Amino acid sequence: MNTVDRIDRRPQAIMEDSIYFYRWVVTWSRNSPPASAPASSSPSFRLSAGIPSVSVTHLFTLILANMHSLKDILAFSLVLPAALAQFTTKINRAQTADTIPGSWIARVESNELLDTVLSTVLESAGVESKANYTIGGVKGFSFDGDDAILDILESLGAITSVEPDTKVWASVPRGYLSQRQDAPFVNGSLTSQNGSTWGLSRISHREPGANDYIYDRSAGKDTFIYVIDTGINTEHSEFGGRASVGKSLISGSDGEDDQGHGTHCSGTAAGSKYGVAKNANLIGVKVLGADGSGSNSGVLRGIQWAVDNAKSEGHIDRAVLSMSLGGPFSQTTNDAIASAVEEGAFVAVAAGNEGEDASNSSPASAPQACTVGATTREDSMASFSNFGSLLDIFAPGQNITSAWIGSSSAVNTISGTSMATPHIAGLAAYLIGLEGPRSPAELCERIQELATKDVIENIGEGSANLIAYNGHGALPRAAGGGRGGEEF
Asked: Is 261 marked active-site?
């Protein structure tokens, strides 16, 4: 395939001029710069002080596709400063305690540019992409590089933005991840489950203090909860064959949970004893390792895999992403959440446990996510919970008992907005099964509409004073009638 064939459907004159000018650039870079740029026979190529006014998008794509060395790239950046000014690369080089040294996440505008940058620019600069991601309109890649590489990428302008890759953590306060083995509760098979956890009781009663969980028998049937976390102990008796390993983004891991956090969250979302949506399917997407940490780039790949899988399996409108994790603010992560929601997936995210405004962390600060804060048994905001105007809902998050690793009956009692989030992920699946699919935004609004209002004490400034409520397990169905009111 010749050079022109690579950019089919481009105007012929622009292609000819682009080729002509590129040959001049290469000659200039490999020998000595001529006194002036060559004149063009085509009226589409007008020179002003040696700088072309040809369509920069077409020229840029073509030239990058034909570069063969780092010298070519540097020459291009020197010869076309005015053209490259039309592309702005925003590089955030700030380093914090949470950044992964020398690791970066880059964004591009199109798949065409993504392919070009990966196949030409990085290769010429001696850099390999660690992973690529496309989540709806969010496209990019992660890579390792030093300041010299960033300088090259910044001068080229082919990349929209570059930000440091950062560590992400399971959203539990430090010290809460120690294992404790308790005897599991006895599971009732009725719509009223006696002896439930206080969290399940709280979301099915308007007042605190109950000890049973009241829920509709549909219980999230035919819904799919993607737990983006440390994996799932799929052999646990809580899941009864409804849990599976979907994908591991941790090197050397088969996707099973080696930490416990993901299993705990899965149990709260959809366990048979400890879960909100007891008939929902669980898919583990492992992005956190045995120490409960991972990378932001790994989380992006986990989001992409979950969305792609839900779409390919035909259940994106019945898919819930549960993300009990967080790290420093990342626009790329927030945009990835927005794209997942735009594709049709409901996304529940933890507000975080720093006791500060959730706007400082991601994905908690993603406006399109349903962001969850934590409450105590006494209906107080948990002291560790983040807060603020970006929070959509609160749910029980202190001293929550659920499944764990180590055996098929292991349990643990821990705290965090990580524990509050799967209550909402499970409630979202529960409402989809009960009332039918709706858009993610409408579903988050439905959860807010049902919530118990204005009972949380010591609530953080700007936070919505709403505790999750399932409608007492007897919500009006979206179609075909059904029961109404608060009865079971």
From this structure: yes
